[in-house]
Amino acid sequence: MSISSAPQHPIKIMHRWCVAIATVLLLSACAQLPKNVERPVSAALASTTGSALAILVQQRHDAASARFDSGFVLLDGPQAAYGSRLALVESAQKTLDLQYYAIHADASTGRLLAGVRDAAARGVRVRILIDDFHSTGRDALVLGLAFEKNIEMRMFNPLAGDRDSSLSRIANSLGEASRVQQRMHNKLFLADNVMGVAGGRNLGDAYFGNSTIGNFVDLDVLAAGPIVRDLSRSFDTYWNNERSYPVETLVTQEALTRIRNRAREADTGKTSGVRDLSRTDDGPKPAEDEPLPEDTNPTPEQRAHAWDQKAIDLGKAAFVWAPAVVLADQPGKIEPDNSSPNAGDGRAPALVISQQSDKQNRPANQSLDVAADLAAGSETVVEGLLQLIGQSRRDLLITSPYFVPGDDMKQVFAAARARGVRVRVLTNSLASNDAPVAHVGYARHREEMLAMGVELYELRSGRADFGSAFGASGASVTGASKAMLHSKVLVLDSRLLVVGSMNLDLRSQLQNTEVALLIRSDELSRIATAQIEAALREGAWHVELADGKLIWRAPKGSGLQDTTTEPDASASLRFLLKLFGPLAPDKLL
User: What is the topology classification, in CATH, of domain 347-588?
Assistant: First the structure.
């Protein structure tokens, strides 16, 4: 089962539309991306002196007598994740830089983007970079921000064609199937180049506990200090890349008006409203006549939830000060359009940015330096993480929504087990996976991973309260919705914590671009481990291999029974995946 407010894997969408595309090809002419596009170069602030956020960070640092310059807070639930972004929007005085795979035009995003537009109106320079795969139909209305004063918006690796329909855009891109499969999966939310959020969440109801259908269990990090400048440098690399097209070169205001009008007609008589950012004395409120994505029109409860959320108090955030590095794929990992006049830079090594200001603390920071040096020799973020896993000595704890281990991943895990390393992996069950076809790639390697001693856990789809899955603050506003794992976390030897946008699958390794924070902190590693272990005990099926057969052990205290079939998944879904799963190659899942 999938939900419309959550982005789906490109191959999943292409499979679903394969028949319809043939019809579209007969009816539409092939569109092309614009040529000779002007992309004014811009960069993050050279200095943050004088920014209220910069002053706050320095005060918090000095009050803690911190040894290291950068601070971190684990955002262990949707309310903290949402409130932190609201706080950054409200506190920004100079710049806001947002980089996302998907931004949905729904209640939660409407509230957040209302604040972004207000920030631009008070003089904050806003840059928004979004991958182009999901910006169609009603979600395309988010692109209207590109026509606001002080807001620039660019789209990475765009598809040509009419934004009214994803079908026509994919049909126009059939000759570029390889490029279309390669997406910018990075997620960053940066304010004044001094504080920001990195992690797994896109922007939308399902990522902030506000979907009636299903909500994602996720984990973000609020970062402060010099490490944010490193995140900004990664953002700038993508922003100024030739694959980033200004929205104005791809869509007109007239086209957005047509989409809006059609959406209004389709929603006649339905409850609607958050996109137009009307105001009252109490601040921005949702308008009643603006459309939202199909099947995700907010209920009054959803709308109230989104607009009643409060920004967290950044002055009270419990920062842990620690050394860290940014690990990010270069945009050149995605091959440029062959028709581009500047094409040819091809695939590039992973970009590793060390926080030089903390290098002087070498005795406590040595393990981080070694880790960064290992990752620096890798071609991708995921390959860098595999290098780190190769250095593990005691314990490895991983959460990955899509876990599709290729041969090199399996070799790394086998070597770790041979060294006596305990390896535990939390991933989605078939029932909790928003892209069931991706589960096929995991399932075909499941028995082999168990045989080598890797411990596998699969999230229960019924964990809608999230109370033990990454913190009590993760409670969903809709108790009937299902839970879906979306966090991408690695804890190595209880000392190194990695939080980012990457999955441990071949798509993240070979095709999508990713970004991650690698933090050397016993305290943060302990916090993340406690949260994940609680989810393993109380919210996940423990998969075992007994007498050559798979068995799913029910979570303690759940009242459920052990089972020998994919739990909570229908027989028809299991049959379809068994029938068609072998046709889907791992690298496209």
Answer: Endonuclease; Chain A (3.30.870)
